[in-house]
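Entry 12.
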Amino acid sequence: MKLLSEDSAVRILQSATSPKNAYQLSKDCDVSLTTIYRQIKRLNDKRLLKVSGSIDKSGKKHFVFTSKTSVFCKCASCNIDISSFIALERIK
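Predicted 3D structure (tokens):
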């Protein structure tokens, strides 16, 4: 929950309802690329983002990120729906 209290993390989750790369997220959220990459790592570690992509023949990485609407909670063995929280934060 601490991560979801950070404005940049919530903006990333709101913006990533459709697949976007880090540069697109930076522009949409008005957040530096450094912060985007830091928050993407944190959100991915908490399994709040889906990451997909590929590496082309020249070795360039192409990743896109999509926010999840529910998260599995190990302690309660259930899924927690976070879509309403993200939508609520968007209204503020």
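Annotation: The radius of gyration is 14 Å. The CA atoms of residues 61 and 74 lie 32 Å apart.
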